[in-house]
Structures are given as structure tokens and as C-alpha cells.
């Protein structure tokens, strides 16, 4: 019963944070539990991130497949300094996301703090939720900085 309470809390937090991905994920997992399909949870846990990243990559690359973006657009994007800064920003974001993925694999309960932190950022800083993976990546970076300062 404890797992259901946590999932309902995540649904409420996701709704409050205007995060449809967290809300939907928690709803789907709650349904899996309530209709007694728990035998699929280990497979979801083992392959869910890979499947999610696959769909994210498909979405990012689809403009190339549809013809909306072509080689000339890629070349034009790097004709100015902003394109090169965007390249660096994308590389840094991908690196941070990988650190966030590692952090969530090691410490999955951290998602609650990330979601609550997102709510605080939305309410008090007028922020926009970007997703738990990027938030985890920034958290991993902040943890490393604090460890360097404290000496642990």
C-alpha cells in the first residue's frame, strides 16, 4: 500500500508542477499495480529508460526524416558564433543528462526532491519544468561541487 501512496503523491506533485510526464508515468505505474501486473515492473525498470531515450531521439531526429531539416540547415546553423555556442550547450546538456541518469539509477528516490524542487522553481522563480533527467544532471553536478568544497 505504501507504493500506491507514493505514486498518488507523485501524481499530485506532477499536477501541481504542471509536469504531464511525471503525472502520466505515476498514473501508468499505479494502474499497473492496481490491475495486478506487477510482474512487468522489473522489465519496465530494466528497459524503461532505454525505451524512453529511444523515443526522445526519434523525436529529435524526425525533422531530418520528414525533410523539414536538411544538410543546408545544419551548415547554416554553424555559420555564426551562436550556432557554435548551441553546439557546446547541447554537448554540456547531454553530458549532464548522462550524469543525471546515473544518479537516478543509484538513488531513484531522489526523484521526489527533484519534483518538489521543480515546483519551488515554478512557483517562486517563474521557471519551466524541463524534466527529471536534466534536473538530476544539475543535481549531480551540484553534489560534485559540494563534495569538492567540503572535501568528501
TrEMBL record:
It is found in: Cell membrane. Its main location: membrane. GO terms for cellular component: plasma membrane. It is a multi-pass membrane protein. The chain crosses the membrane at residues 6-36, 78-98, 110-128. It comes from the Bacteria. It holds the Pfam family DUF441. Keywords: Cell membrane, Membrane, Transmembrane, Transmembrane helix. InterPro entries: UPF0756_TM (IPR007382). PANTHER family: UPF0756 MEMBRANE PROTEIN YEAL. Belongs to the UPF0756 family. This is UPF0756 membrane protein D3H35_26460. It comes from Cohnella faecalis. The lineage of its organism: Bacteria, Bacillati, Bacillota, Bacilli, Bacillales.
Amino acid at each position: 500500500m505504501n507504493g500506491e501512496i507514493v505514486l498518488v503523491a507523485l501524481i499530485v506533485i506532477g499536477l501541481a508542477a504542471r509536469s504531464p510526464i511525471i503525472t502520466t508515468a505515476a498514473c501508468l505505474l499505479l494502474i499497473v499495480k492496481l490491475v495486478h501486473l506487477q510482474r512487468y515492473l522489473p522489465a519496465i525498470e530494466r528497459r524503461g529508460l532505454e525505451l524512453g531515450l529511444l523515443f526522445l531521439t526519434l523525436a529529435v531526429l524526425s525533422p531530418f526524416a520528414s525533410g523539414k531539416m536538411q544538410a543546408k540547415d545544419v551548415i547554416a546553423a554553424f555559420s555564426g558564433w551562436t550556432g557554435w555556442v548551441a553546439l557546446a550547450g547541447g554537448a554540456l546538456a547531454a553530458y549532464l543528462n548522462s550524469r543525471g541518469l546515473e544518479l537516478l539509477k543509484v538513488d531513484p528516490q531522489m526523484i521526489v526532491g527533484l519534483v518538489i524542487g521543480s515546483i519551488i522553481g515554478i512557483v517562486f522563480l517563474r521557471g519551466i519544468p524541463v524534466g527529471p533527467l536534466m534536473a538530476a544532471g544539475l543535481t549531480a553536478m551540484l553534489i560534485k561541487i559540494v563534495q569538492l568544497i567540503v572535501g568528501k
